[in-house]
Amino acid sequence: MSDNDVVSGTFRALVESADRKFARVRDVPAYGRVHNQHYFHKVFKAYMRLWKYQQEKRSKLIEAGLNRWEIGEIASRIGQLYFGQYMRTSEARFLVEAYVFYEAILSRSYFEGSNSSSKAFGKKDLGVRFKELRFYARFLLVSLILNRTEMVQLLAERFKALVDDCKANYRETNFKEWRLVVQEIVRFMKVDTAFMNVRPLRYSTLFDSHPSSLPYVARFHAKRVLKFQDALLTSYHRNEVKFAELTLDTYRMLQCLEWEPSGSFYQKRAVESKENGTFIDHSGASAASGVIDMNLAADMTDPTLPPNPRKAVIYRPSVTHLIAVMATICEELPLDSIMLVYLSASGKAGRNNVTQAYNSGGSHKSSKNKVPLPAQNNSMPESCINNKGESSGYYDQYLWFGPRGNGGLSNLYPGDIIPFTRRPLFLIIDSDNSHAFKAGFTWCGKRRDSCSVSFTFETSIQEPS
């Protein structure tokens, strides 16, 4: 067995080992405390070993038949791992690391080495094209969250051209889903244009006062100072503007709850377009000419800023799933912390859907105590009646989390959130029916002296479809 065969065999073994470890953490939810954190360290360690090995043995691996797209696939997987860690922890250093790897793949044209336009088409080439499409979609999402608007525009152009090329060269394959992704990013960029070239949504030291210079906010409790560490962001609208599973509402809230990095590492520079169509971003480690550094323990944080709160971003959840996520976060919330919940959904202000909810079983509520039919007002629980003998409205109005024709199963009532007010809660209702929650929780705030509940009410502006 030649030396190249040994190197190639070792490389394949490392790839299989890393992929097995990746499969164990790929589907871990992005909310709740991760109790098996050592699995994440294992998968990062496996890819660090794999990445270092292919760098040291690059020439022999190429002689043994290694394709450039295989290197790009490894780098793309590493970027995916970093982005997953960012979504679980909200630490900006993971997001920047993902950008560094994705930008290196683009600038070094790892996937273009096997471009199908230069040779006969085949199933293997089609598989590589799908890998490249997934890479562009993930890189677009990372660049979007990082506010790299120039890169987003360039990537969108390249992504659209790639989809068009795939449609032309692989006519027997349906690329409808990828065409929809192209439409999503184009629409997202068009709607978000008003926010371009202005100050960032994030708290920025360039435009805002430093946190240490701000006056203290009034305490929620006389003997408690609460820390903001967890947030739940979700929206459910018909024809809402989105990219992947990030809607425009949650995208803007996501950034409003983060600090704009101000350290020298994060300084943005212009993205240049070369004549051959490749892009160069003169920032981060990608400016180096040879090696992409991978260091999970690297100190890339900005010491002048507090950590970002952890944010669970859920795309179009069912009511039961939303309540389950809220319960998970609330159960694991530290005693000195407060949870922010942002709900953006449509409602039916002024209309009562009680009969429909009663006939369909309601939203996990019993017909005796939780559906306020006129004949049952006398049997309502004491917590649902205020000191004037009137219904508190906990189950009169709702937000609509679901498709048409699903009845009360898709209705989120103010009463569904009451159990979570046992812990400090900051609730934002972005809806045309937000006043129903304000009315319902005004009484709750008076009855529950031990909980701190704050409310901000907005009316969501839906973009045209």
- Total count of helical runs of at least 4 residues: 13
User: What is the typical, i.e. mean, pLDDT?
Assistant: 75
Low-confidence segments: 115-122, 263-291, 349-391, 445-454, 456-465
Coarse structural class = alpha/beta
Topology:
Elements: H1 3-26, H2 37-56, H3 58-63, H4 68-89, H5 92-107, H6 123-145, H7 149-169, H8 176-191, E1 227-236, E2 242-243, E3 246-247, H9 248-256, E4 271-273, E5 279-281, E6 310-315, H10 319-331, E7 337-347, H11 354-359, E8 399-400, E9 411-412, H12 414-417, E10 425-430, H13 434-447, E11 453-458
Parallel strand pairs: 1-6, 1-7, 7-10, 10-11
Antiparallel strand pairs: 2-3, 4-5, 7-8, 8-9
Helix pairs in contact: 1-2, 2-4, 4-5, 4-6, 5-6, 6-7, 7-8
Task: Identify the notable features of this structure and list them briefly.
about 475 residues, alpha/beta, Delta-Endotoxin, domain 1, Rossmann fold, 2 domains, 7-stranded mixed beta sheet, disordered C terminus
